[in-house]
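fyi for ur records
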Amino acid sequence: MTPEPGILHASAVAFGGRGLLILGASGSGKSTLALRLMNLGARLVSDDRVIVSPTPDGPALGAPDRLRGLIEARGLGILRAPPAAGTVIAALAVDMDAPPPGRMPPRRTLALAGSVLPLKAADRTPTFAAGLAQAMKCGFHDT
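which gave:
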């Protein structure tokens, strides 16, 4: 999977300056996952459209001006949310359209804006968002 830099149909949240890019088709659950992660301490970068810019530190994630601080909650409407502050560099990506991962999923990557990010397939289990939040805060154990 290699999306082009520029504006992606995606959502993104941040834990500090570390960004999590959520990719998927319309209706795949990008905003829902972003809301769950925000409930676990993430800040909104952007919902529905994410600006991706190459930097020496990795892909920077941002929001178009008209979407900054707004996220859609299906069945509720458009909600306000405090946007992430400062520069957010993508550290991880989630593919909402990929088949569910196994218990110990294979390593996948995403080439984006001159960098390579770990790419995880979305899992619809209740612990997925909590696991992503923990990974964003403390990383993965590489065996």
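The chain has a mean pLDDT of 93. thats all i got for now
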